[in-house]
Amino acid sequence: MKTDLDPAIAARLKRTPDGLVAAIVREHDTGDVLMLGWMDDEALHRTLTTGRATYWSRSRQEYWVKGATSGHHQYVKSVALDCDGDALLVTVEQVGAACHTGEHTCFHTELPVTGGERR
Amino acid sequence: MKTDLDPAIAARLKRTPDGLVAAIVREHDTGDVLMLGWMDDEALHRTLTTGRATYWSRSRQEYWVKGATSGHHQYVKSVALDCDGDALLVTVEQVGAACHTGEHTCFHTELPVTGGERR
After folding, report:
1. How far apart are CA B45 and CA A80, in angstroms?
2. How far apart are CA A70 and CA A66, in angstroms?
3. I need a surface site. Which of A25, A58, A81, B36 has the fewest CB within 10 A?
4. Who contacts A69 (Cβ-Cβ below 8 Å, separation ≥6)?
5. Element counts in chain B: helices (H) and strands (E)
6. pLDDT at A29
7. pLDDT (tens digit, 9 = 90+) per residue, A65-109?
8. Which of residues 6-35 of A touch B (CB under 8 A)?
């Protein structure tokens, strides 16, 4: 996919075998972790230049702008890249629910931690 | 890789082409997003049953227990799976710096957001 992403940024990305980096989405006002999306170079370019969080859908194999159908828009406040280039921290103003289920965040299935030194 | 991960959990995971889910690591006390790691089924199993955050290193192609060499341990408080099974939110007590650079978090490169309706 041809993209206009700044080559200096593109050179720092460390992608999955299918060309994606993980985008952690955090709510600006609360600090809550809302969801994880996936971005290829072009999705990152669109996110940075439009101020609207844009992802690559692994299931549908297409770009999607968060909120385009649901109205649950994400206005981008800031984007930070991590030290090894495989993850982004996208801070947004979230309109409505982040999760397609209607929940505030996508992380609503607790897994049992059964062992260890829990201080 | 043979694993003893609960098959009911394994059945919910949606992995990258190389068999991994993204693990977002959040600090319990502050809510800060510290880093992103990768887990295959066995790394998740070890994390849940030992209470110590354990990842799969994509660069070294091996398991690593956070803090094993640095002393910067992560004691796991909770683990939540997201709605589509491709991401985990791991809440930890972090000892020392989360990033190998010595920074508190791994997200220390701000990217320019140049466009859009920033409210």
Report:
1. 30
2. 8
3. A58
4. none
5. 2, 7
6. 96
7. 999 999 999 999 999 999 999 999 999 999 999 999 999 999 999
8. 9, 12, 14, 16-18, 20, 22, 24, 26, 31-33, 35
Q: Which of A85, A20, A26 shows the shortest CA–CA distance to B33?
A: A26
Question: What is the domain partition of chain B in residue ranges?
Answer: 7-94
CA-CA distance, B41 to A111, in Å (whole number)? 13
Taking every pair of C-alpha atoms in chain B, what is the biggest distance, in angstroms?
A: 49
Quickly name the fold that domain A7-94 has: Ubiquitin-like (UB roll) (3.10.20)
pLDDT at B119: 47
How far A39 CA sits from the closest chain B CA (Å)? 13
Pairing label, strands A87-94, A21-27? parallel
Contacts of A22 in chain B (CB under 8 A): 22, 36, 87
Q: State the DSSP code for B47.
A: H
Q: Do B36 and A87 touch (CB under 8 A)?
A: yes
In 3D, which of B87, B90, B106 has the Cα closest to residue B22?
B87
* ipTM for the predicted complex: 0.94
